[in-house]
Amino acid sequence: MVEESSKAVSFVIGNEMRLVYGQDYTKTTAPTARLESFRALLHLAAAHDWDAQQIDVKTAFLYGLLPKDEVQYMEQPGSFQEPGKEDWVWELLRGLYGMKQSGRIWNKTMHEAMVGWGFQRLICEWCVYYRKTSAGVVLVAVHVDDMLSVASSREENERFKQQLQSKWKISDLGDIHFALGIAVERDRATHTILLSQTALIDRIISQFRQKDSHPVSTPMDSAVKLRRPDPRTPLPADQAQYLSSVPYQSLVGSLMYLAIGTRPDIAYAVNRLAGFLNCYRAEHWHAACRVVRYLKGTRGLRLTLGGRAALQLVGFTDSDYANCLDTRRSISGHCFSLGSGMISWSSRRQRTVADSTCYAEYIAAHSASRECMWLRSFLAGIDHTPRTPTPLMIDNNAAMKLAEDQQFHSEAKHIEIKYHVLRDYVADGHIVLQHVRSAENTADILTKALAPITFIRLRGLLGLR
Is the distance from CB of 191 to CB of 304 less than 8 angstroms? Predict the structure, then answer.
């Protein structure tokens, strides 16, 4: 038997985990690398012609060392009982799959090993590691037990894999071809990497019965204005029965990973559709199906990263004033590139009602500036510190002036203080706002439904080809 103690004690009995929050565990957060980091590293690999490989740690959670203040016990499995001690229990030293804290414990164990091998963890991105020696550079992005390793030479990647094998069992997947559901194609002749999610698109088309539908040229009809239904209006029985069989939430959820992974061209449409998850009607379902029809016609588009151009962080920001007909809130959109296709983008409704286009653009620029500062910190962490202020392209002169000086006091004194951090970023030389014609503002595609000609032109500027 085991001795009683004041430590947290829990039992694993059979396949059942009897874990109590606050007693057996407290924290479960386990960081993973952002998709923006994944795309940024692939851009660097392509542009510098560096080696990029994929590694998987087998049964990673079983390597996590349990902390001393989270003691876990387990009944002996029937075929492994110690003769004469059948009523004894095992004290677990490592994590098990199914434990609430297993992911966090593994992440800490992995971090200690990486630091021991000379890696530094980025302050702004806890699952990206950087090591520079006289032999070369290695950059590693970690998603639970999957690793993307980008190195200045193949020998450095081989050295890193040998270090992993010295502690854990790994699957050496070689040159990266498919990671996180994203297909990766490389063209070393042009120094480019192409990202796509064709397999997911095909699954969505099949799952939601759109194989026989006709493709369309845009994901959202610019003439259609979606609204939330009046909750006071009763829903007819036949419509209620029809909507109960419609997998609207499942479809929008599937589209979300495309929108954040490799298809910024559907980001606005998916963001709008996500606003009706608890009140969708037939028109919302048809709008969601239209996105699938658009993907069907453009399933071959790939996000192009890398190239021979010098690495430079450039951003675009835009807003669509009072876009939401229900709340009259505006839509903010921004995107950032390192010289080719976009590595970061966002389309979302603003949290407050703006009373002018200037205010809406100012809020959008503030949102873009926060992402810009994170990207600058990320680049600095991997020894690619921007030497000049990052250009942030904007098509509103009033918002530009407001960010550079305290002008229009009578018209702008009501603006929330938090948005004025943009002024500090500009004054400190981190960001420089530059004017761009509305027709050339790439972020416009992230704020509204556009006509086909304009949409296709801006889609190309996103890096989708």
Answer: no
What does the alpha-carbon distance between residue 366 and residue 394 come to, in Å, rounded to a whole number? 11
For domain 8-180, the CATH architecture is 2-Layer Sandwich (3.30)
What burial class does residue 200 get, using C-beta atoms within 10 Å of its C-beta: 0-12 exposed, 13-18 middle, 19+ buried? Answer: buried
Q: What residue ranges do the domains of the chain occupy?
A: 8-180, 207-297, 310-461
Amino acid at 461: L
Tokens encoding 160: 């890193």
Long-range own/partner contacts, residues 89-94 (CB < 8 A, 24 or more apart):
89/1, 89/2, 89/11, 91/2, 92/12, 92/66, 93/65, 93/66, 94/62, 94/63, 94/64, 94/65, 94/66
DSSP string, 171-219: EEEEE-SEETTEEEEEETTTTEEEEE-HHHHHHHHHHTT-TTSPP-SSS
User: What are the tokens at 459?
Assistant: 């889609």
Coil, strand or helix at 106 = helix
The CATH number given to 310-461 is: 3.30.420.10
Q: Is the pTM of this model over 0.90?
A: yes
Name the maximum alpha-carbon separation found in the chain: 85
Instruction: Output phi, psi for 157, to 5 deg.
Output: -65, -40
Helices (H), 245-281: 248-261, 267-273
Question: How many angstroms separate the CA atoms of 297 and 222, rounded?
Answer: 18
In angstroms, the CA 247 to CA 386 distance is 46
pLDDT tens figures, 256-303: 999 999 999 999 999 999 999 999 999 999 999 999 999 999 999 999
